[in-house]
Design goal:
The chain is an alpha+beta fold. It has 14 helices and 33 strands. Strands 16-17-18-19-20-21-22-23-24-25-26-29-30-31-32-33 form a 16-stranded antiparallel barrel. Strands 1, 2, 6, 7, 9, 10, 11 and 12 form an 8-stranded mixed β-sheet that branches. Strand 18 and strand 19 form a beta hairpin. It is elongated. The N terminus is likely disordered.
Length: 704
């Protein structure tokens, strides 16, 4: 409780205890002197900081404060917010750096987006603001997933000033505009950590407090000066994991070049500050890549060993140090008195204030903050959501900080394989705020032997209150078991979209014009789609499912539909299980057979993708066991053992083809490359070796 009466027993005992305290306080204070940690950057080499903190905790040496740069800011921030060394080890074990950096890729068998105007595998080319000024891309990775993860981890603390954390804390970043050192001591802990580790060229700079911030290592990779300024009188222990320069023989790859460049750039400021430290601990990190988490335990243990070797010196410093300032017990009953929003459109700001106004007058809950940030981030025009608290008397104002996506984005991408002729180069993009605040026009041009154009206009980024207008033109060629077909399809439609929880749906009307074999066919009718998505991650799910149903009723005659289901399960740290199944209903007798289903044409079975099986309806399933063989900064090397079956029916309802396939694949999903190599065998005793680069966008609108 934050207040209350004092029992009579306490009134009698407290004076006696106070006298005892006055007698032993000097001795206790002397024995409990605190040290300050200055934790350097160094990528994953900074995991050694955990071992240092672990030893200090075990030996009862109080930490009076932590100042961190880059990875030092991350480890230091988590430790300052109350994570024990054991918990920090668990966090690192569960941290999938590859997945957090791979923002545009899917491993095999993970369902791709149904949005034909938004290719999943793409490389940002250019981004413009509303005035036409180039605003990006500013880095290889946005870092939004990292911020979300940091926000989840930091949700156990609800403070305005970092001095109020369990261990007082500060993060060091660099102002990209002025080159000045920026010391972050208030606001969002997640944002402070994200800003401090924004390696230029790798991560987008992070906007904070009107500044554009990048990695603090550029100006102070070992923040001893800052530690001395913030915590005067305390001995500063510098933990240096910045590494040493590589020899010519040790430079083999792009990563080595990046690491060497960063070391050269930061070494001078490290040397300037390291001499100011009262003690330096340099864990053995030689040969450890700044992005490699595969040897996390060894790096942490290296930090622990280095701290134990320096333990006598650490104890001497602590014995001479002043005691750690006793912190007042935090009152967690502060009420929310106001909801504020920074950034975003006026419409979105008003929406957020209305949606969360029920918080006003209630105690603060950081878990609610994390959930709300996730909900706001689901808006199509929102890039990232952060939050902070502002003190208003004894209570707090909640401030949501919205980063919007650029007004115009243009991306390039592509897809190719040797198993079928559907290969394209993509030129895709989005224009926001075209007619209304928050509206968007998306488009995708598919350039290849078979071409396609898809465009979609959404009146609002809100999934439960938007109208969508769709335009599509496609050229298709197929060589199936019933011969070769070629057609051009032109379509337009409008639909009303709805959403609630994990469900999203749309109801509309579509028109189609098909040209095939010198003849034209026109149809129109209602459309419907329903999606239920409970996957815990879009790129590497370990649990949950995804169901999608899409239907069209041309000329109110026969309903055409396609239903797919996907389930993911985590078997262990490195093993996943995937299951997917689908059913599709077509119409072989109408539009010269261009509404038939084709098993394999959309890679339902990979070995039949070059010669799909035509029918009235089809059913298929696939199952795969995936093992992660290797994790690195560029992605993962996975292997999948998979198998599947398909069944095709004619227009009389008879099942006339049963097929199966099995195989092994190796895939490298990553933000620089999304490649797969497959070894396939099927029921026709046909052995194939296939490769895939990129992700396909099929685009059949309005056909399901």
């Amino acid at each position: 409780m934050c207040s209350g009466g004092v029992p009579m027993f306490s009134k009698k005992v407290l004076p006696f205890l106070f006298v005892v305290y006055l007698i032993i306080a000097p001795v206790a204070a002397h024995a409990r002197g605190g040290v300050v940690l200055a934790l350097s950057g160094g990528g994953t080499r900074g995991l050694a900081h955990i071992g240092i903190i672990e030893v200090l905790k075990e030996k009862g040496i109080p930490i009076a404060g932590i100042v961190g740069t880059s990875m030092g800011a991350i480890i230091g921030g988590l430790a300052a917010s109350g994570y024990s060394p054991v918990e920090l080890r668990e966090v690192i074990e569960s941290l999938d750096l590859t997945n957090l950096m791979s923002e545009r890729t899917n491993p095999i068998f993970v369902p791709l987006s149904q949005d034909s105007t938004n290719p999943h595998n793409k490389i940002p080319w250019i981004a413009l603001d509303t005035s036409g000024n180039v605003v990006g891309p500013l880095g290889g990775v946005t870092g939004v997933k990292l911020l979300e993860r940091f926000a989840q981890l930091a949700s156990r603390s609800q403070v305005v000033r970092f001095d109020e954390l369990e261990i007082p804390y500060a993060a060091v970043a660099t102002d990209l505009e002025t080159g000045e050192k920026v010391v972050i001591r208030t606001g969002s802990l997640a944002s402070a950590m994200r800003a401090s580790m924004a390696i230029p060229g790798v991560f987008d700079p992070w906007p904070l407090g009107g500044r554009l911030l990048v990695d603090g290592g550029l100006v102070s990779n070992l923040p001893v000066k800052t530690a001395k300024e913030i915590f005067p009188g305390y001995p500063v222990i510098a933990v240096d994991v910045s590494g040493t320069l590589k020899t010519r023989k040790e430079i083999h790859s792009l990563v080595d070049v990046v690491e060497q460049s960063l070391t050269i750039f930061t070494r001078r400021n490290v040397l300037d500050e390291i001499s100011l430290a009262d003690l330096v601990i340099a864990p053995p990190v030689a040969g450890v890549s700044i992005f490699d988490l595969t040897n996390a335990d060894r790096i942490v243990d290296g930090g622990r060993k280095a701290a134990l070797q320096k333990l006598p010196d650490i104890v001497k410093l602590a014995e001479k140090a002043p005691p750690v300032a006793q912190k007042e017990e935090l009152c967690l009953e502060s009420k929310v008195v106001e909801i504020k929003v920074e950034g975003g459109t006026p419409y979105l700001q008003d929406l957020i204030r209305k949606k969360y106004r029920s918080w006003v007058g209630e105690p603060l809950s950081t878990l609610n903050m994390v959930r709300a940030s996730t909900e706001i981030g689901a808006h199509d025009d929102v890039l990232a959501v952060d939050y902070r608290f502002e003190e208003i008397g004894e209570d707090l104002a909640v401030v949501f900080v919205i980063q919007r996506k650029p007004s115009f984005e243009l991306n390039v991408g592509g897809y190719t394989t040797n198993l079928h002729p559907h290969r394209w180069i993509y030129l895709s993009g989005v224009r926001r705020d075209l007619f209304l605040d928050g509206d968007s026009l998306r488009f995708n041009f598919k350039i290849g032997e078979q071409w396609g154009i898809d465009a979609s206009y959404l009146t609002s980024p809100e999934k439960n209150s938007s109208w969508e207008v769709i335009l599509s033109a496609q050229n298709w060629e197929l060589s199936s078991n019933k011969g070769r077909r070629e057609w051009d399809r032109y379509a337009a439609g409008i639909s009303r979209r709805f959403s609630t929880g994990s469900f999203e749906a749309g109801l509309g009307y579509a028109f189609e014009q098909v040209h095939s074999g010198g003849e034209g066919y026109s149809s129109s009718g209602p459309t419907f789609f329903l999606t239920s998505n409970t996957l815990n991650d879009a790129t590497d799910p370990t649990k949950g499912s995804l169901f999608h149903l899409q239907a069209w009723w041309p000329d109110m005659e026969e309903v055409l539909y396609r239903a797919t289901y996907f389930q993911a399960a985590r078997l262990s740290d490195n093993w996943r299980f995937y299951f997917r199944a689908g059913f599709a209903e077509g119409d072989e007798t109408s539009a010269n057979g261009n509404r038939a289903v084709y098993l394999g044409a959309a890679e339902e079975l990979y070995s039949y993708s070059g010669n799909p099986i035509q029918g009235e309806r089809m059913f298929w399933w696939n199952a795969a066991f995936r093992r992660i063989l290797l994790k690195s900064w560029w992605g993962k090397l996975n292997t999948e053992i998979f198998g599947g079956m398909g069944f095709v029916y004619d227009d009389t309802g008879n099942r006339y083809r049963d097929v199966w396939e099995a195989g092994v694949s190796f895939s490298i999903p990553g933000f620089l490359l999304d490649g797969k190599l497959m070894f396939l065998y099927n029921d026709e005793r046909d052995f194939k070796i296939g490769f895939f680069i990129g992700s396909p966008v099929w685009g059949h609108y309005p056909l399901p």
